[in-house]
Amino acid sequence: MGGGDGAADGSQDAAQPAEEARLERQLTLLIRRAFRSLWTQSYGPEGDLDQHNFPLLLVLAEEGPMRVSEMARYFRLDKSTVSRHLSRLESAGLVETRPDPTDGRAGLLHATRRGSARVRKIRAARREPVKRVLSAWSAEDRAHLATLLERLNTDLDEVVAQALR
Question: What are the C-alpha distances in Å from 60 to residues 79, 110, 137?
């Protein structure tokens, strides 16, 4: 009797845990499928990239040079872990260290041309299955999904940041 919104009888509150469980389940499936089938095959046959070091290369290619300590903070990882992954990327010729022009004692990590080209190739390969899956969706639905995912990621970043304070 409260206008059909369920608030007067408490049914909206009762439905919330079920909706949260449904969202958690769907996010889990999405993440599992993305890692297991959509993206793990797209790193290429070279064997020098994987789900652990590709994000580091991606950030350098898209956001520009950084110090190892900045990368560690960005990914909320130990500096030694980041250094290990970056060493593998450097050995593969995908990342290089150059002197920091503002502090000659420090080095800045840069994606090489080869590294940036690999990022473009991998991102294009990752888009293909998504394009196939969403091909029957309207442009409006695809845009709405992108908007909601952006909002979710922004809100998740904020929750993580608050937890670290």
Answer: 16, 6, 33
